Amino acid sequence: MKPVSLIQFLIEERRAGRINAELSLLIEVVARACKRIAVATNKGALGGVLGEAGTGNIQGEAQKKLDVISNEILLEANAWGGHLAACASEEMEDPQPIPDMYPKGNHLLMFDPLDGSSNIDVNISVGTIFSVLRCPDGVVEPKAEHFLQPGTTQLAAGYVVYGPATVLVLTFGHGTHEFTLDREVGSFILSRRDIRIPEETGEFAINMSNQRHWEAPMQRYIGELLAGKEGPRGKDFNMRWVASMVADVHRIVTRGGVFYYPLDAKIKDKGGKLRIMYEANPMAFIIEQAGGAATTGRERILELQPTGLHQRVPVFLGSKKEIEVATHYHLEADGAQG
Ligand code: FBP
């Protein structure tokens, strides 16, 4: 079969009336920026890009050099691109307006420029996560409140994993598709169209070191998985935890499984660990479009009304039937379900 490039795929989506020209060009700009981030991450120590930047971000985290480099690459490319009204990033407190010298567009872009920062210096897969919304009509200088739209209003979402291969996974709400970077040609090539995640799974991902801090229903649920076929679930479950959400989610998009970053006593005051606007919402859109499910343990993530640009939420996502079990245990414990 003749290889289909990302550009060809986007043109097909436009001809089918599923996306408009501006959105397709915006995705081209984001993909091109991620190719530059791939080059920077691949250089590692030889590129002088490892280690701390010596600065902190709005999350109170020490920034890695590659966090800052990736953020700048995405800001620069999208400011010039001409398809945005503004963008927002994990690395910046407030939305970034588009400089007046560049044309503006009708879209809002949010991104986690380099997800999995704790793995950068140890050569484990990291990635970029992004989400696209429509800028509300009549808004010329978008503020944070204009980004606070439920995940169901996303026009596009995607992530790029910088691993052994560089892979882009994308949805516009018409299925989830995968593209692999052909380094010789320098193009993303369609490698899987209309991905379907198996509804059942025997593989879960969670940071077990937080177990003592979990709520009772999570203790019960994971306890039953660990009890295996001798336990109430009657089957064995295997565990994985890369500690890069993009890598853990990509494994699920590839072969099924479930990923949990639940609420626990340590992070209760923050509302969770992962951020709704540029981690939970885009990943939930991608997973649901591939036949999976994504909840907070209680509610569908995409239906949440965001309250802040850097708001954190619990994240349960992956193979549908398994997410339903974990969510049911929480609602049952709350007395919301029999
Ligand atoms: P950032 O690296 O973008 O801050 O993302 C948070 C993250 O690294 C996720 O990628 C990952 O799933 C999680 O935190 C790992 O958490 P922990 O260090 O508790 O295992």
TrEMBL record:
State what protein this is by name. Fructose-1,6-bisphosphatase class 1
> What species was this sequence derived from?
Dyella koreensis
Looking at the record, the residues that make up the Fructose-1-6-bisphosphatase class 1 C-terminal domain are: 197-329
Protein's UniProt keywords contain Cytoplasm: yes
Q: What class of enzyme is it?
A: hydrolase
Query: Pfam families, alphabetically?
Result: FBPase, FBPase_C
User: Which subcellular locations apply to this protein?
Assistant: Cytoplasm
Concerning InterPro entries, the annotation shows: FBPase_C_dom, FBPase_class-1, FBPase_N, FBPtase
Q: Fetch the HAMAP family from UniProt.
A: FBPase_class1 (MF_01855)
Amino acids binding Mg(2+) 1: 90, 112, 114
